[in-house]
Amino acid sequence: MALPFDVSPASRDPRTLSILAKTIYRELRASGYSERDVMALAGEMLGIVATEVKDKRQKP
Questions:
Q1: Can you tell me the distance from the alpha carbon of 50 to that of 53, in angstroms, rounded to the nearest whole number?
Q2: Domain layout of the chain by residue ranges
């Protein structure tokens, strides 16, 4: 699965993230990951993003 890293956020279709999320979910499930595994992955990703946002807010 190739991700469109060269696409600017302004030019991205609003449905892109929804389609990407569904695609990732289907790929994980097809690869044998359980719903619990997918939820754990989502939680880990949210934790990473939250830490990044927190770090950016703390910088002067």
A1: 5
A2: 34-60
Note whether 41 and 24 are within 8 A (CB): no
Whose tokens are 């703390």? That residue is 58
Contact 52, 39 (CB under 8 A): no
CA distance 25 to 41: 10
Tokens of 48: 């990473």
For residue 3, the model assigns a pLDDT of: 61
**H helices within the chain, ranges in order?**
16-30, 35-58
Positions in the chain short of pLDDT 70: 1-11, 60
